[in-house]
Write a structure and sequence with these properties.
The radius of gyration is 31 Å and the shape is globular. Helices cover about 30% and strands about 25% of the residues. With about 600 residues, the chain is α+β, with helices and mostly antiparallel strands. The protein folds into 4 domains: about 100 residues, OB fold (Dihydrolipoamide Acetyltransferase, E2P) (Beta Barrel), CATH 2.40.50; about 180 residues, BirA Bifunctional Protein, domain 2 (2-Layer Sandwich), CATH 3.30.930.10; about 130 residues, GAD-like domain (Gyrase A, domain 2); about 80 residues, no CATH class. The chain binds one RNA strand of 77 nucleotides through strand 1, strand 2, strand 3 and helix 2.
Length: about 600
Amino acid sequence: MSPAATWRTHRCGDLRASDIGEKVVVCGWVANRRNHGGVYFVDLRDRAGILQLIADDDATQEARDQIGSLHPEYVVQVHGVVRPRIEGQKNKDRATGEVELLVEKVSVLSKSQRLPFEIQDELDVPEQLRMKYRYLDLRRRPMQRLMELRSKANHAVRCALVDQGFTEVETPMMTRSTPEGARDYLVPSRVRPGTWYALPQSPQVFKQLCMVGGLDRYFQIARCMRDEDLRADRQPEFSQLDMEMSFVTEDEILAMVEQVMASLYRDLLDRELELPVERMSYREAIDRFASDKPDLRIPIEIVDLGEVAGMIGFGVYRSVLEAGGWVRGFRVPGGGSLSRKQITSLEQTARDAGAGGAAWCKVTADGATGPLGRFLGEQAGADFIATLGAETDDLILTIADQPRRTLVAVDAIRRAAGEMMGMVGEKDRLVWITEFPLFEQGDDGEWAPAHHPFTAPVSEDLEALLGGQKEGIRSRAYDLVLNGVELGSGSIRIHDRELQEAIFASIGMEPEEAQRRFQHLLEAFRYGAPPHGGFAIGLDRLYALMFGADSIRDVIAFPKTASAACPLTEAPAPVDAAQLAELGLALLKQPTPTE
RNA sequence: GGGGGUGUGGCGCAAUUGGUUAGCGUACCAGACUGUCGAUCUGGAGGUUGCGGGUUCGAUCCCCGUCACCCUCGCCA
């Protein structure tokens, strides 16, 4: 096929009644064909929409033969004249429905064999098949919409930050492995056999180095890779909006992130975000919602029953409290209407979360009913109900267990009960969670940094920290939470070398080890590091939520499966022995053939 | 790594207690039809029931193993 001077004059989906009479050239994919013997219809699709082609008695026999020989997903160029559809044959459901293109000439630019699935908006096929033929999946309008929205969102983010004086910096994809955090994806070095690059889990160190470099305000839409097992909302490589600022307080960073979020809401959803976003300390979030990422759409708050639960004569409460455990619960307003079956499922939710079960009762006009009911008759029972603020027709749900298990279970049943009661409000609820603990205790009882080890402590807690205390030390770290989903996190960093070394020491890291692992950062801090802090937002998850996608895979052009494989390219795949030899590598284990 | 679910023409599903030539819809191909737009009608082609093994006269069905995908726990500073 010889090159045309102009492939097309219009896009299919752009033609309107105002174009009637125009001689046009369009290109697109054959979406559908209908043949009535003498009159041929073809729906031609491009990114802008669908245009009906027609070849009836007004068309030449040649044009009718050409259009009659088309098949699904052929790519064609069509010369024709835009004309109005006859009365009664307009299609109101289609933007081009007022017009049709009378075909003069059809050129087949590319043929298509039979498709593995149909190109239609509603599709019910295995996701793996869509991923294997992603280029076909992307022809579908809903997928094109998501790709367009993502592009528009990235653009909005860049505009908002560049306007605020940020500099976009591309940090290396091949860097040094850091043993903390997630497992690294490794890249072998050919030049120095036996040595490795790591793909970045995040640009953390580099963005701090940008601050030492005086860039002042950095951002990047960064690709990050973590070699961990996947989840529905997690991909092995993902995008995060990464930011860092010098000479800032928490307030300024939070305000900046809020501005970015407001820009996204405005440009993508055409909605105004209410600012400032509510803030809540970690302590408060745990006390009120038993979670560091509370879903504030559910209007249920947790009550500490440690004082009153021991008084009502319920043996489980007493023994748990004597063992140093907790009793926490909440009232479900109107929850008296829940069936026994629904409550049983809440009890199961508690057990699935690791608790022994959930003790409950319903508050009725004649007293409390249910398993707790018979313990609530006396004054202590009245105090118990009063502490919960429960009223007639409420359901009371409680968990009694070790502190950590209590929190996990009470959070689980709070969310389950909220959903069951239809309490989840429509409105998006953003909240900042601040002052996260600097250390957290592992199952082995060891204290480890809860965030990364560069997070600064709250200054009032500094003395206790340097005195060796771990428990209760607050950090200047914060998370942004939307409807119970963590969107991102950040912190004010340590910029003082001595404090940094003290932190390393406090987590049991020898100076030599700290030097070996973070030599580049620690050395940078010798040369005048400004106070700085930043934030990172997981964009895939945020976009999936904002665009109403079924899965984060739907907002990623070429996603991977739960086993980190790409069905399209069949990566990961074996390589030639020669490639391995060049890298100085030998396999200890051969790849297992699939199927 | 653990647990759960799924696997039958391209796709969505069915197949009695283990029993005939594994059916139906859709898509595809061909023919018919002069205003359709989820066209319609007629016909056709299309199957290693994920793979391997076992039990049985006989396996889509029962058993064991394995692979892939999805969900979930661990994990993801």
